[in-house]
């Protein structure tokens, strides 16, 4: 994580629009513009400042709560960086913050069984083991009684070189890792959208949901 990114969190136009696109996909898939009251929102958090750090764009928690998609007490953020979680707790004590590895936390926290929307907002390279591990664990651990939507973010190219990554490899990886009986309940056509994170990096968001 670069210093600038760490200081500001993701309070910028590109990220704001990408999160808006998530909500549009959620509405298209479920017919709803907000999460049902008994469901929760889970994200890989990074810093979530309580006001814009530069310009007008707000952090994810402010965006999602001001659009009335979810309330703060049903917002759950996970990050492996202790400092990030500590800071987010200060800014938003009403929300739920966990320091640790995504897969470990969701396996352990029973509250994850109520997840209705999951923003698996990684900067992992599409198709790499880490991305497959995070998505397959999420699909396996999601509660059985609700219809969760997962928006998974991956990188399509290396910011440091010319290497390209193919998100079809991510889908192939999931088919290897998740039992087919479980996977058969999930969407077959994965819809995606891409955005340029920097002039060097293209991100892709893949939308998964259970019928
Ligand atoms: C792209 S940022 C999240 C941005 C945020 N969702 C937003 O919209 O503003 C990804 C965060 O995930 C954290 N992270 C990466 N891999 C992780 C893992 N396996 N477990 C927990 N946190 C992780 C990083 O420390 C980073 O802060």
Write a structural description.
This protein is an alpha/beta fold. The longest helix is centred in the first third of the chain and has 18 residues, at 13-30. The chain has a 7-stranded mixed beta sheet, sandwiched between helices. α6 packs across α7 (168-177). 36% of the residues lie in helices and 23% in strands. β4 (115-125), α6 (129-141) and β5 (149-155) form a beta-alpha-beta unit. It has one domain: 3-Layer(aba) Sandwich (Rossmann fold). S-adenosylmethionine binds next to α2, β1, β2 and β4.
Number of helices: 8
Reported CATH architecture: 3-Layer(aba) Sandwich
- Biggest β-sheet description: 7 strands, mixed
Distance between the termini: 36 Å
Average pLDDT works out at 92
Helical content band: 25-40%
Alpha-beta content class: alpha/beta
Strand content: 15-25%
Number of separate domains: 1
C-alpha-based Rg, rounded: 16 Å
| Gross geometry | globular
């Amino acid at each position: 994580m670069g210093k600038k990114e760490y200081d500001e969190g993701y309070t910028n136009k590109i990220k704001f629009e990408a999160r808006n696109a998530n909500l549009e996909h959620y509405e298209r898939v479920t017919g709803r513009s907000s999460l049902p009251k008994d469901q929760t929102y889970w994200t890989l958090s990074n810093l979530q400042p309580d006001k814009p750090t530069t310009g007008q764009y707000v952090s994810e928690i402010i965006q999602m709560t001001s659009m009335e998609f979810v309330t703060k007490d049903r917002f759950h953020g996970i990050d492996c960086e202790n400092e990030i979680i500590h800071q987010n707790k200060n800014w938003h004590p009403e929300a739920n913050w966990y320091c640790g590895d995504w897969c470990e936390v969701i396996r352990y926290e029973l509250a994850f069984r109520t997840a209705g929307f999951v923003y698996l907002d990684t900067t992992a390279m599409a198709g790499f083991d880490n991305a497959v591990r995070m998505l397959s664990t999420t699909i396996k651990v999601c509660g059985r009684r609700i219809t969760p939507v997962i928006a998974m973010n991956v990188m399509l190219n290396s910011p440091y070189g010319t290497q390209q990554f193919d998100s079809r490899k991510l889908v192939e990886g999931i088919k290897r890792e998740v039992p087919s009986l479980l996977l058969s309940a999930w969407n077959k056509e994965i819809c995606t959208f891409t955005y340029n994170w920097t002039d060097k990096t293209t991100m892709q968001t893949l939308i998964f949901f259970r019928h």
